[in-house]
Design brief:
alpha/beta; 4 domains; six-stranded mixed beta sheet; membrane; transmembrane helix; GDP phosphatase activity
Length: 722
């Protein structure tokens, strides 16, 4: 099961925690067999599920002084991955741990100690593929993180596979990428043709590979600003406040806190006015907050390679006519958290700033009761919201230069759903848009890394194997600093020394596929069943209708059993089953004679008032006799026939024996159970018949043999013949 799938596991080791991501894609060898022309020109299609992710805290960097504890810290993520990656796929599934800004802040010696310990632990405690520690377990640069994010966003938006649907002008069809975490911020974009030629040496050469084996090259600028994440920026901001008021204790007025809110320098609430430690006291002046956070952009730093944006770092000029950016992480959370909601259509600068100004100017005593404290980190997010909003606005508009325009013309839909569908068809025509998910998949740089890896598994076209998948400096051939995708196009089945047949493709469904299909149909099937049940109950709500349908079905059964009716051999049991079913569904008729006369004309039987129906229990066949026998047992158990009296039913049965035999077999010895009547009683009667005078015994046998039905029963067992 699941032989057509490839799997990948990647751990995002950030500053505040480590998050597991699992991805799955179809094996290229299998995907090629049924690929359309459009598929052949596309990158591999990766899939993930919400429950395939898991986050733990704190960050890996916190184990710098106790590296021996970092392995057990990761164990829960390994176990979670093993729950979803098939057991027979684990050895072929690569595992990556890539650390970002939190680890970048550590000295090189501590970084190396942690990555070495992590690799050793994963090799000893898991079966995942980890052939190269330096490639699979590493602290990645901010530029690399930004490039992976750029790949992920363009992959999900369709900028790679459908450039004709994403024309932004001047032949441009990709999107810029902005990311902001706790410790750093990244930017990645493909400059317009003029800027790309002017700053060719500043670009990264990225090589991917489509399903048909063709190389796909892109030239991207990417850079990072370490210390420009929201947490690091806030630490810098508080330090500036301390310098401004030149005091180590007392109260520091903070315009980036709601009015009346009192916190420690780390942001924890303070309720004791005589705490004896420096505290921040909110003044709720958002315009003042914007002014105090602006210097943190470092716009006054010297620029040695013009043009520059933040902190004196070189960035090619951004042409906002063709460079349309998406923002993830804090760009999404800060615009759609306290001040917005998931139903907000997009980032509208004027509306957003008005919301922030109104919120931050309120008294904290009025805000706090409105916060749902049951939500994790809800109160902390509310306390930090004003600073984060001011920092984001400054970075976007004063730092990067995003135009301050509204987005009211967009359709009113969730950005991660409706608006992005609009973006796929018309292109993102807005200079900036915060996003979280596209088609239900989180926009994470980890996806970009795995897309690169999956593309490396596609076999290249003949003659194109000189263009490996990966990235490096923007030079011809394979640059000296080229980072390979870490994958190859070796067929998956060769890893195990066997080869599956081509037919496996058609039957190769795993449990997830089956479960997804079942879920999609279960609700519809339930409602359909409910509707049919209601209709059936409505139709048969009156007894007259049930009896009318019963009569029609019963008439069919009589014709099927009647000699010469043309019924097929072996149909008797089916007809009897149908009769039993109709009896249970519709109930039995009040008149007993309907079941008696169905076996034939009365003239075929020798009827006598001396015949007793009890003795009929010794006969059994699959014709009329068995039918009368079944009917007798049914009615006896239900009280339809009294145990001590005679009835027209008993006298009419062609299987009855003379009363002299019945007198010897007392009625009291006959059980109402069908098993007793066909078993123990039969044996008792057989023994008693041995003691009868010859003429009486023969008379009994002649009476039964004379029955037309008896002659039609050649399949009777010796026990029944007795």
């Amino acid at each position: 099961m699941g032989k057509k799938w490839r799997w990948g596991v990647i751990l995002d080791a950030g500053s505040s925690g480590t998050r597991l991501h699992i991805y799955r894609w179809k094996d290229p060898e299998k995907a090629l067999k049924h690929a359309s022309k459009e598929d052949l020109r596309s990158l591999p299609k990766l899939m993930t599920e919400k429950h395939w992710t898991k986050k733990i805290t704190p960050g890996v960097s916190t184990f710098a002084d106790s590296v021996e504890d970092v392995g057990p810290y990761l164990q829960s993520l390994i176990e979670h991955a093993l729950e979803y990656v098939p057991e027979d796929k684990v050895k072929d599934t690569p595992i990556f741990l890539m650390a970002t800004a939190g680890m970048r802040l550590l000295p090189q010696v501590q970084q190396a100690a942690l990555t070495r310990e992590i690799c050793l632990y994963l090799r000893q405690n898991s079966q995942f593929s980890l052939p190269d520690c330096d490639l699979h377990i590493q602290v990645i640069k901010g530029e690399t993180e930004g490039l992976y994010g750029w790949i992920a966003s363009n992959y999900l938006l369709g900028g790679f596979d459908h450039p004709d649907k994403h024309q932004h002008g001047k032949g441009h069809h990709t999107y810029g990428f902005l990311d902001m975490g706790g410790a750093s911020a990244q930017i990645a974009f493909a400059p317009n043709a003029t800027e790309a030629a002017k700053h060719a040496d500043d670009l990264k050469l990225l090589r991917l590979r489509t399903l048909d084996g063709s190389p796909a090259e892109h030239r991207v600028f990417t850079t990072t600003w370490l210390g420009f994440g929201v947490n690091q920026a806030r630490q810098s901001y508080v330090s500036k406040l301390e310098e401004q008021y030149a005091t180590s204790d007392g109260e520091l007025p903070d315009p980036c806190l709601p009015k009346g809110l009192r916190t420690t320098l780390k942001g924890d609430p303070v309720y004791d006015s005589k705490s004896g430690i420096p505290i921040l006291v909110g003044t709720g002046s958002f315009d003042e907050c914007l002014k105090k956070t602006h210097p943190l952009l470092g716009k006054d730093k010297p620029c040695y390679d013009d043009p520059c944006l933040l902190n004196g770092q070189h960035v090619p000029a951004i042409d906002f006519d063709v460079n349309h950016f998406v923002g993830v992480s804090e760009y999404w959370h800060t615009t759609h958290g306290v001040f917005g909601g998931k139903d907000d259509e997009a980032y509208d600068f004027s509306t957003y700033q008005a919301r922030v100004r109104e919120f931050c100017g309120r008294d904290w005593d009025d805000i706090e009761p409105e916060i749902d404290s049951r939500k994790k980190h809800a109160l902390r997010n509310a306390r930090e919201a004003c600073f984060k909003a001011s920092w984001l606005i400054n970075v976007l508009h004063e730092g990067i230069g995003i135009p301050r325009i509204g987005l009211e013309h967009l359709p009113a839909a969730n950005v991660s759903k409706g608006a992005l569908e609009h973006g796929k068809e018309k292109g993102f025509l807005d200079p900036f848009k915060p996003i979280d998910k596209i088609d239900g998949i989180e926009v994470s740089w980890t996806l970009g890394k795995m897309v690169l890896y999956a593309a490396g598994q596609i076999p290249p076209k003949s003659g194109d194997d000189r263009y490996p998948v990966g990235f490096g400096s923007n030079v011809a051939g394979i640059p000296p600093d080229f980072q390979f995708a870490g994958s190859s196009w070796k067929p998956l089945d060769h890893h195990h020394g066997n080869h599956t047949s081509d037919d496996d493709d058609d039957w190769d469904l795993d449990a997830d596929d089956i479960l997804d299909k079942a879920k999609s149909k279960s609700t519809t099937g339930f409602f359909l069943f409910l509707i049919l049940l209601i209709l059936a109950l409505y139709f048969f709500r009156k007894r007259e209708r049930r009896m009318r349908l019963y009569s029609r079905v019963n008439s069919f059964c009589r014709r099927a059993r009647r000699p010469g009716s043309g019924a097929r051999k072996g149909s008797g049991s089916s007809v009897r089953s149908l009769s039993g079913l109709t009896s249970k569904l519709f109930g039995r008729p009040s008149a007993a004679y309907e079941r008696v006369l169905e076996e034939g004309d009365a003239s075929h039987f020798e009827l006598s008032s001396d015949i007793d129906y009890y003795s009929s229990s010794s006969s059994s066949d699959d014709g009329a006799g068995n039918y009368a026998h079944d009917y007798y047992s049914d009615h006896l158990s239900e009280g339809g026939v009294s145990a001590g009296g005679s009835s027209r039913l008993g006298r009419s049965s062609g299987l009855a024996t003379p009363s002299v035999v019945a007198d010897l077999a007392s009625p009291s010895s006959v059980s109402s159970s069908a098993l007793d009547r066909s078993g123990l009683v039969v044996r008792t009667e057989s023994r008693e018949r041995l003691a009868l005078p010859m003429h009486l015994s023969a008379a009994g046998r002649r009476s039964r043999a004379g029955s037309p039905t008896r002659l039609k029963s050649p399949l009777l067992t010796p026990l029944q013949e007795t």
